[in-house]
Structure formats: C-alpha cells, structure tokens
C-alpha cells in the first residue's frame, strides 16, 4: 500500500486513501504529532511510573501557585496605581494635558506585564514532570535500564519534549525538516538522517499496524522551496536526504508532491463546482501557493503555477520569543549581544543551537546567568520554544496570555499581549505580503474567485486579513488547518499506485 505523509516543520501526519475514503493514521489517538523526537542515552521502562502517587503534591503546588499569583497581582496593582497617580499629578500641575496623561498611563500600563495565573492543568503537568524526572533518575542510579536499542526507545511528538525532562542524557530534536536544505558536515548529516529515518519508521510502523498490511511505499509532501542556505541546491539536497532516510526506515518506494498541490487535491475532492482557485498553505516553516481550476467532476485539479516562501509560523515564534521571552534571560539588560538570543530561539538550526550552548556566560549578572545556564542544557530551548508557540496560539484569541517557566526557575512566568504578537509577526507578515503582491500581479489576467486556506498558521486572523488585502472580492474557504495537505497526499498516493499498475 502507498500512503501519503505530510512531514511538516512543526507537525507530521500520514493517511491512506482506502475505498474512496481518506483514512488518517492515528498517533496516540491524534491524527498528527509534533515533529520532535527524543532518544534517551539509557532507556528506562517509564510505564512503571505511577503518577497517582503524587496527587497530594499536585494539590499543594496548585495552592502555592494561587498564593504566588495573588501576591504578584498585589504588586502589579500597586505599581499600576503609582503610574496613574504620577501622570495624573503631572496633569493636575499643568505639566501634561489630560489627554497626554491618559496616553502616558496607557503606554506605561501596557509595558507593565499583568501576571497571568497558570492553569491547574499546567501546574499538575509540571508537578508530575518533576516527579517523573526524580523517579527516572532513581531507576538509572539503581541500574534499572531497559534492554531495547536507542532507536527503538525513541519517543515522538509532545511526549518527546516531556520525556526529555525525565532524563539527564539523550538527544531531543524538533523540526529536523528545517535543516535538510542547509550545508551539513558529515556528523550533522548523519545525525539528521538518523532523526528523520526514526520519524519515518515510526510512521511506517503505525500505518502498517492500523492498515493491516506492510506499508513500504509513500508520497511525501514537500514545500516549493525548502528553508536553505544554498539556494535551489538546498531543496535538491533536502529531497535526497528524505529519500535516503525513507529507505533506512524501510520504504521501498517514495515520491514527492508539492504541498500546495496536495492541498488543491483535498479541496478538489470536496468541491462539486469548478472554480479558479488560489490555494494558500501557510505552515510552520514554509508558505506555499498554487493556482488553477479546482473542483468539479474532473479526476484531478488543473494547476498552472506555484510560488514559495521559505518562512512560516516558526518565524512568528522567533519574533515573539525575542520580544517577550528572551528579555527574561537578559536580552537588552546585560552584556550579551542580540545574536546569542537569536541562536537560543532558533531551535531548528543545529549550528545556532550549538553556538548558544557554547556561549560563555562569565560576567552575566543574576538572575540571568542561572537562567541561561539552565537554558543551555540540551533540549531546554525546545521546550521553551513550545511554550512560545502556546503563547502565539493563545494570543490569536485572547488579549493577553501567560505560560509557566518553572522548569527554568521556580515561579518564573512569561506573559505577552496582542501588541507583542503584532510585533512578533511583523517581519513574517511583510514577506507574506510581498509574496501575495507578486501572486496578485501574476494572476491579474485571470483572477481567482476562491481562496482555499490551509496549514497550521491559516488559523491566525492576520493571515486571512493579508489575503483579503490583495484578493478582496474572492470567497475565502478555510480547509482543515492541520490535515488539509495529508488528505490530498493520500488520494494522490492511491491514484499514482493504481496508474503504475495499469501502465
């Protein structure tokens, strides 16, 4: 059987087209998993860990967090009151107008971060993670390790990030797709191949178990342009590495399809009417667009042209991290230069991550030095990046949001507002706007009547707003943000396999 694989920068999914229905492969009950893998140096059988033994500790920590938040709110209200009194006094004395005072108060209060309480579930998760870490270390100290190989003990998705914190040693990597197009030395190349092949093997095994056949063939989605430091050759290298990793994972045949073309196939299968359609796929690492006649009763959509941008949601994460999270680690407040914090925030770039871990912190003042030393531990930046992503998602709906950074320092929290998010996505949105402008000019002779939006970032309201600035009269259709590509890959996989048999 031939399946479709959407090997994404942030999330990965797989599906098969069986008897006219797209059947999604399940990963721990979900149709996708975070593209992250952890390989412990010495595996432990963590199924023996009993989290119910820590119920009292959870309750105690939740109570302590409530008290700490009440104190933080008291401090915040006191500081806010002083700000209001100060500027109102200036206005009363004639040194500021009433409107000027209101404006200054608003600016000062927006800079004053309002404490956001961590949810009871987040506290429970952090408590159990700490308990599990202590338990694993006890097992390791007592020599109770598992006999499985390192590759067989690999953990994927959200669990990879959580599992990392239970071990002292091991390798945690997120978004390996982002490194495929970069210049790699021999050790880096081998490391990336091992990680990607582990992920593809995880997919192949899950698909084989659920479909009841040995799955050895796949169509893998690819962006129009991979993120790269080598121009077009970077995309060629990325494809070669994926082919080699797939072969290691047990696939005997793989082929590739542009991700926006796969999304077009998904929409084609859903739309009874043919329309000139612009398919916009905004993912974690790349943004891809295609245009053509999609829908109706033809077997496949008729696509004419594609465009690509090697930027996506992770660029928004970077901008938000530098603005709201890295100042907690001293950005703009100590002698370390901005590139150090960029290196820390770019979790998908192995070279930058190594440079950050090698950065000397002599002379960095408290509390930043201790926080940075914790952040330099292998894999901690990945967990921090996940929390930045959670902030980004929350701010798409809420005016303010916060996340606990207890794994860095007890009681430490990062908070952000929608204005922080706007600053965070400014650079990405400028590039996205330029791409849409180019597409608009090149489709002026035959304008699309429908825009089909998909990809994880398509949920963000500012993505649709940008599209409407350039295509104001079109009908905007929102596809499944997570699974809009993989369904088309599955349909194409089944069709291509059938064609190979009849030819």
Structure, explained:
This protein has 503 residues and is of the alpha/beta class. 48% of the residues lie in helices and 17% in strands. The protein has helices at 55-92, 98-111, 120-141, 158-164, 186-211, 232-248, 259-270, 313-325, 338-345, 350-357, 368-375, 380-395, 418-442, 461-470, 486-502; strands spanning 2-7, 11-18, 21-24, 33-34, 36-40, 155-156, 170-174, 217-222, 253-258, 275-282, 287-294, 302-309, 400-404, 413-417, 450-454, 475-478. The strands form 4 sheets. Strands 1, 2, 3, 4, 8 and 9 form a 6-stranded mixed β-sheet that branches. Helix 1 packs antiparallel against helix 2 and helix 5 (186-211) packs across helix 6 (232-248). The protein is globular and about 85 Å long. It comes from Pseudomonas rubra. This is Hsp70 family protein. Belongs to the heat shock protein 70 family.
Mean pLDDT: 90
Give helix % range. Answer: 40-55%
Overall structural class, as computed from helix and strand content, comes to alpha/beta
Envelope shape: globular
- Our count of helices gives 15
| Low-pLDDT ranges | none
Radius of gyration: 25 Å
What share of the residues does DSSP label as strand, in percent?
15-25%
How many strands, which pairing sense, and closed or not: the largest β-sheet? 6 strands, mixed
For the secondary structure, the number of strands is 16
| Cα distance spanning the termini | 17 Å
Family: Belongs to the heat shock protein 70 family.
Keywords: ATP-binding, Nucleotide-binding
Protein name: Hsp70 family protein
Organism: Pseudomonas rubra
């Amino acid at each position: 059987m031939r399946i479709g694989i959407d090997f994404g920068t942030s999330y990965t999914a797989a599906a098969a087209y069986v008897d006219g229905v797209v059947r999604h492969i399940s990963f721990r009950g979900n149709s996708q998993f975070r593209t992250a893998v952890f390989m412990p140096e010495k595996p432990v059988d963590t199924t023996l860990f009993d989290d119910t033994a820590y119920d009292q500790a959870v309750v105690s920590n939740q109570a302590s967090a409530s008290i700490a938040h009440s104190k933080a709110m008291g401090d915040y209200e006191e500081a806010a009151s002083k700000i209001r009194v100060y500027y109102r006094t200036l206005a009363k004395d004639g040194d500021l107008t009433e409107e000027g005072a209101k404006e200054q108060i608003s600016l000062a209060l927006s800079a004053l971060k309002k404490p956001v309480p961590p949810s009871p579930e987040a506290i429970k998760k952090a408590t159990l993670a700490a308990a599990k870490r202590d338990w694993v270390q006890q097992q390791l100290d007592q020599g109770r390790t598992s006999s499985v190989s390192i590759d067989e003990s690999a953990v994927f998705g959200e669990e990879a990030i959580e599992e990392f914190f239970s071990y002292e040693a091991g390798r945690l990597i997120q978004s390996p797709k982002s490194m495929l197009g970069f210049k790699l030395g021999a050790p880096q190349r081998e490391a990336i191949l091992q990680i990607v092949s582990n992920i593809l093997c995880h997919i192949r095994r899950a698909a084989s178990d659920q479909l009841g056949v040995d799955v050895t063939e796949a169509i893998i989605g690819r962006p129009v342009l991979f993120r790269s430091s080598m121009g077009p050759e970077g995309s060629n290298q990325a494809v070669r590495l994926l082919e080699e990793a797939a072969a290691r994972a047990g696939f005997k045949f793989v082929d590739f399809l542009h991700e926006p073309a796969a999304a077009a196939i998904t929409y084609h299968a859903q739309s009874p009417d043919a329309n000139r359609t612009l398919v916009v796929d905004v993912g974690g690492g790349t943004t891809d667009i295609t245009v053509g006649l999609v829908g109706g009763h033809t077997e496949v959509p008729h696509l004419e042209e594609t465009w690509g941008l090697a930027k996506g949601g992770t660029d928004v994460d970077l901008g938000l991290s530098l603005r709201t999270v890295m100042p907690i680690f001293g950005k703009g407040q100590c002698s370390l230069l901005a590139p150090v914090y960029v290196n820390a925030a770019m979790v998908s770039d192995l070279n930058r991550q190594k440079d950050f871990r090698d950065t000397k912190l002599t002379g960095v003042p408290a509390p930043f030095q201790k926080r940075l030393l914790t952040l330099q531990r292998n894999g901690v930046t990945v967990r921090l990046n996940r929390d930045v992503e959670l902030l980004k998602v929350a701010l798409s709906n809420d005016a303010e949001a916060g996340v606990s950074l207890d794994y860095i320092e007890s009681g430490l929290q990062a908070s952000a507002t929608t204005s922080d998010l706007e600053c965070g996505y400014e650079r990405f949105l400028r590039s996205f706007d330029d791409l849409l402008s180019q597409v608009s000019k090149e489709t002026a002779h035959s304008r699309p009547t429908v825009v089909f939006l998909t990809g994880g970032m398509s949920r963000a309201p500012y993505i649709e707003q940008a599209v409407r600035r350039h295509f104001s009269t079109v009908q905007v259709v929102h596809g499944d943000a997570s699974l809009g590509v993989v369904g088309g890959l599955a349909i194409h996989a089944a069709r291509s396999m059938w064609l190979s048999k009849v030819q």
